[in-house]
UniProtKB/TrEMBL annotation:
UniProt keyword Transmembrane helix present: no
GO molecular function annotation: ferric iron binding; oxidoreductase activity, acting on single donors with incorporation of molecular oxygen, incorporation of two atoms of oxygen
InterPro entries attached to this UniProt entry: Intradiol_dOase_C, Intradiol_dOase_core
Signal peptide: none
Organism lineage: Bacteria, Bacillati, Actinomycetota, Actinomycetes, Micrococcales
Protein name as catalogued: Putative dioxygenase
Intradiol ring-cleavage dioxygenases domain location: 151-227
Keyword terms of this UniProt record: Dioxygenase, Oxidoreductase
Length: 316
């Protein structure tokens, strides 16, 4: 895999926060070389307006109010700011308690934090490139496409990202595209992990609608050592740019909530994640730990039996 490394696309002078490599039996040499080759992207980013978050993020949550879909006028005129508090207690068996996480709902102008794409992006930056494959544009990303139809099993999850244009009063960023990817219920990534090199499940591209929203149907991601459960995403200016693996507008990650993780990982099939989850808190995570993930913590609702929804405003 190291021979396929390419130079990451990085705006000059900008560095994202880096995530450690999952413990996937690849060795220190692989980890170091891959980390050094990760793409880095710019601007320190945050979240959309309070009104836009309430309007744009689907689903209810114990830590944030739910609301109806966003509209351009609501997003453009919202100027209020507020904070809400989400309790993120330490996972059972962890050595230290986890402090309360304050979820920030900022005024328009605070953008989503830029993060590393991680060691398994599948976007051509370090080898595999799923973005140029026929079939990657899809809403349901649970199964592989192309030469395989393998399906990733797990608790159903629907993820909606609402893209907001910070340079234009945080109106919906219609027509932009999002590439989203994450690990399976055991913490493994398609295209990279042993036995999954010919699979491309849990990866897909969607175009933002008039409300700036993209929605993916997937499964709840697992937990692996060294990282808090998360979903990666890249935002592109257009669908054509995304499917050509062109220049990205933003690279970030969505953090799952503590409560949902506890519920999901207690269910059948997530035994590996249940063992790994207590080893990393949101505050000790190498990506979200800098600010506790306050601008990236999803608004979530649902149940193991009925599936979950997760939403996040992505101000660019």
């Amino acid at each position: 895999m190291d021979d396929a490394m390419t130079t990451p696309r990085t705006p000059e002078g900008q560095q994202p926060r880096h995530e450690p490599h999952p413990s996937h039996d690849r060795g220190l040499e692989f980890d170091l070389s891959t980390l050094m080759s990760r793409r880095s992207l710019g601007m320190f980013l945050g979240a959309g307006t309070a009104a836009a978050l309430a309007a744009c993020t689907p689903g209810g949550s114990s830590s944030a109010p739910s609301g109806s879909p966003s509209t351009a006028s609501a997003a453009a005129t919202a100027t209020a700011s507020a904070t809400t508090t989400a309790t993120a207690t330490a996972p059972s068996g962890s050595a230290t308690s986890t402090p309360t996480v304050t979820r920030a709902i900022a005024e328009c102008g605070v953008e989503i934090p830029q993060e590393t794409a991680g060691p398994y992006p599948g976007d051509g930056s370090n080898g595999p490139n799923v973005l140029e494959a026929s079939g990657v544009v899809r809403q349901d990303i649970t199964s592989s496409f192309g030469t395989s139809t393998t399906t990733a099993d797990g608790v159903p999850l629907t993820v909606t990202l609402t893209l907001l244009d910070n340079s234009n009063g945080c109106v919906p960023l219609a027509g932009a595209a999002v590439y989203a990817w994450h690990c399976d219920k055991e913490g493994r990534y398609s295209l990279y992990d042993s036995g999954l090199e010919n699979e491309n499940f849990l990866r897909g591209v969607q175009e933002a609608d008039a409300n700036g929203q993209v929605t993916f149907k997937t499964i709840y991601p697992g937990a692996y050592n060294g990282r808090w459960p998360h979903i990666h995403f890249e935002v592109f200016e257009s669908m054509n740019n995304a499917t050509a693996a062109g220049q990205v507008l933003a690279v970030s990650q969505l953090a799952m909530t503590d409560a949902a993780c506890r519920e999901v990982y207690a269910s059948a099939g997530y035994e590996t994640s249940a063992r790994n989850f207590p080893n990393t808190t949101l505050q000790s995570d190498n990506v979200f730990g800098e600010d506790g993930g306050i601008y990236q913590l999803a608004t979530m609702s649902g149940s193991v039996s009925g599936g979950y929804t997760a939403g996040l405003n992505v101000t660019i």
